[in-house]
Write a structure and sequence with these properties.
The chain is α/β, with parallel strands linked by helices and about 450 residues long.
């Protein structure tokens, strides 16, 4: 039986960092992944999505500027977009594995599950490790309805060789809305079923309201208060049955995506055999990201109860785990982290929403405005530009910032710097930025 000091399950952002840091510090390390090496974000998530979006953004901008310096609208090609994705991610698995091997790390592929707290079964082969790190990321939340097997997951989006004429997304979260906007702008008929009264639940209601109305005006069908009940496949068509406000409806489409949410990918590991306690949110860990029930287990990268499904946080968590495995005493301290929904226009936010500020009993001030008529938005003929800022009245520090607009995902980074540096809103507004840039707009917020 092979023996390791540290064994890492998962080869995404978090798994790579922990494994290489431990190996570089002299530990005997092994890694395994059930899929190709490299993780979701680089191959089936954030990065490929942004590559696809680049062509859509170019098409959209040329359309907005038609007659304002541009003579005709560009046409995005799905086939060429997919080629770009493939050229980007083609060598990621091999490159990742080579990096591990260069660091002296043993690489495994396939299914794995625990026999006990120190033994892992890998396709019938047993290995022993003093410590284990679970960094398996998340997977699509299973749908418990008849016909769920006919749905596609987010990873399948990048493998569609032909565009569907009609597509339905079960779930109006960021994945469903981002993919829905891409397909709509490629000429697909898009329907989104959302269980609640609004899409994009974690985001600020002010910016989401604008995004929801814009999506509907663009022609995306958003069915709120809708619950999918079953899916039937007839030939090459799918009939989705759903209830909306107590009434049953049906929609016939070519493709159905399950975008109802994501859950920690830990079910098949049989962590109970190792005495590792989990709940519906993931592995129960302490502030050091160490299992509360089994001290030789750690979790990072979307699988613990301490996490948020954000790639930058995975790296921070991995650093905490690495430090603790190597004997340093380090606790997870989560900074203010911005997040974005890459629709057109983009939604971005950081810190508290107004609802959260109210629930926390915070004495706050709201500054909000529709800035669609401002120069930068008019320059691009953008369809919406608005913001909402929440300030702590006691010290004028920013507790929340929410933007919808062409460059919201970049503007929000300035609020991230300000919030993590403890700057007041006036400090930020008094900063000199290049003019006339989107950053400079913040001086007028």
């Amino acid at each position: 039986m092979k023996t390791y000091d540290v064994f890492v399950i998962g080869t995404g952002t978090a798994g790579q960092l922990v494994a290489t840091q431990c190996a570089n510090s002299g530990k005997k390390v092994g890694v395994i992944d059930i899929r190709e090496y490299g993780g979701t974000c680089a191959q089936r998530g954030c990065d490929p999505k942004k590559i696809l979006l680049a062509a859509i953004e170019a098409q959209n901008l040329s359309g907005d500027l038609k007659g304002n310096g541009i003579s005709r609208t560009a046409t995005a090609s799905w086939e060429q977009m997919l080629d770009q994705v493939e050229s980007y991610r083609d060598n990621i698995p091999q490159r990742t594995e080579n990096k591990f091997k260069e660091a002296g790390i043993d690489c495994y592929h396939g299914n794995s599950s625990f026999v006990d707290k120190n033994t892992l079964d890998i396709e019938g082969e047993k290995i022993y490790s003093k410590k284990f790190v679970i960094a398996t990321g998340m997977k699509t939340r299973p749908l418990d309805i008849p016909g769920a097997e006919y749905t596609l997951s987010s990873g399948d989006f990048f493998s569609m060789k032909q565009l569907p004429k009609k597509v339905l997304f079960i779930g109006g979260g960021y994945i469903g809305m981002e993919f829905g906007h891409i397909l709509h702008r490629l000429g697909c008929e898009v329907t989104v079923l959302q269980r609640g009264e609004r899409i994009l639940n974690p985001f600020e209601e002010y910016t989401v309201h604008h995004a929801q109305q814009l999506s509907i005006e663009l022609g995306i069908s958003i069915q709120l208060n809708s619950q999918a009940s079953s899916i039937e496949k007839i030939d090459d068509k799918h009939i989705v049955y759903y209830h909306q406000d107590g009434v049953q409806h049906q929609k016939t489409v070519d493709v159905v995506f399950n975008t109802s949410g994501r859950v920690p990918s830990i079910d098949d590991l049989k962590l109970e055999n190792a005495g590792v306690v989990t709940n519906r949110n993931g592995i129960v860990v302490n502030s050091k990201l160490q299992s509360e029930s089994q001290e030789n287990f750690y979790a990072c990268g979307d699988v613990s109860i301490k996490t948020l499904p954000l790639t930058p946080l995975s790296g921070i968590e991995a650093q905490v785990v690495s430090e603790n495995i190597l004997g340093n005493n380090k606790e997870l301290k989560v900074p203010a982290i911005p997040s974005a929904v890459f629709m057109i226009p983009t939604i971005a936010g950081i810190g508290l929403t107004e609802k959260q500020a109210k629930e926390n009993g915070l004495n706050y001030e709201v500054i909000e405005n529709d800035a669609s008529s401002w120069f930068n938005n008019r320059r691009l003929q953008g369809i919406k530009y608005a913001y909402k800022i929440l300030l702590d009245k006691s010290n004028n520090e920013i507790v929340g910032a929410h933007i919808i607009g062409p460059e919201a995902s970049e503007q929000i980074n300035m609020f991230a710097v300000a919030m993590n540096a403890g700057m007041t809103f006036e400090n930020l507004k008094n900063t000199i930025f290049t003019y006339p840039s989107w950053g400079n707009d913040i001086r007028s917020f």
